[in-house]
Amino acid sequence: MLTLEPAGQNRELAADIVRFTRRSARRYKRSRITWGDRFVDAYSWGLGIGVSLTIAASFILALRNELADRASTTGSIIGGQWLVLPEPVLWTSVTFAVLLVISNLARKLGPMTVSGAESTWWLILPVDRRPMVLPPFLRKVALTAAGSAIMYLPFSMVTAIDRVPVEHVFVALAFGGAGAIAVVLGAVQQLGLLGPRLGKATTTAAVLGCSLLPALSWSPWPTALVGLAAVGLLALVVPRSGRVRGEELVRGGAVAGHAGASLFMMDANEVLRALSGGRERVDGGRAARFYARRTHGPLRALIRADAVAFLRLNPPLMPPILWLAACIGMLLVEGGLPESVQLAVIVIAGCATASGLGTVARKTALVPELDAVLPLHPALVRTSRTLMPCLAMSVWMAVLSGLLVLLGAADPWLVLLGALAGVGMGAGTLRAATRTPPDWTAPPVETPFGPVPRAQVGSLLRGLDVTILATIPLLVALYLGYVPSIVLMVQAVFSAGIFLVVVLSRPKRT
């Protein structure tokens, strides 16, 4: 009893500190918000959510009917399938990919964190940390489970038409439990209960097993199994939640705060910087020989420096490979997806891959004064920044186009068309990296969805617009089933024009 009493007293003191802090914060917020403001906010949010849910429901029902009435591969961009993937394989792969994203975000954002103010005086106190970090952690687990279940319900309704409504509910609950497991496994790695490699392998295996259960959820047993697994992991983590290292709590809080503020300010570059900030592994030998060569002239030196930086920052190879697999997998699925959906997936994959290749451009855009002191014209500096993303995207698009040619989507000229499209898509990464912060002085525009910040949305789409524009001739060729010479020329003009516009245009100053 003597050894347990101090721990209990420390825990009670920590709980009192947490309650006092949060009570004071709520009192301060209530003093600055009137009931009229709350009513207006509730009315605006309710109206916007209601209209959005109505449109989303109509879209889901229309897509469900289109998938139900499709006839084999008559609407596909490929003429015939020499390899057919069963539909459950594709939907299980999508579920697995989403759960991997949830687990990766949980590992980067915490999930046990403290904010900047809390880390200033909470962590230095000689008290138990569990009352400080446990309630937010449980809240994150509950919100992730609820959000995952709500999002998976329409996905189940579209992809599994033969299920009854009760089975859709069971499937959604099973996916919600799988999302909670992914978050709790992130806490297991944060506590150091498993090594880094073993923790990643265990998380991947657990997520893979959970992704298979929604396909089997014709009864409540898989849902109950996922729920019991989530409860068991929580019982393992909750008693040990006070043992998380202080630096890990501060790191997770900094990343979560940075990403949350960037989302609130609608700054996509800052979101990507926040999520990539925890990846500290830098390869010093990948481009050592290339870096050691002598150069002649400042332009060649800058091009070599940008190439070395691109290679040393270790651009991850797995996401581009997974996006290639997604593009090919949705073409080979049994029954065939609608042609519009196939083209949309290709565009999304290209935009996501191009965004991941702009790490160097985003980092150099933070300090534009360094580029100004270089003994080169600003257009030449921007050209050097764009070369490696353009080359990488050309290779990726050429590989994707080659695979599409093997599947019979078009003639071999599609490979050249894809390589040219990659140049324009790679140039869009520099345009996105040098976008100006959103102008919050511009008034919003009233729409049926509520007020829409037009200026902020325009700033957010900067870079994405030219990336999508560069893919239009490629999409036309895929729709036609062959590559006309006029489409090839238009693609060359589009890519060259996008490259010149991005290189010659100067970013606006704030």
TrEMBL record:
The chain crosses the membrane at residues 42-63, 84-106, 168-188, 221-238, 321-337, 343-361, 386-407, 413-433, 460-480, 486-504. Keywords: Membrane, Transmembrane, Transmembrane helix. This is ABC transporter permease. It comes from Arthrobacter bambusae.
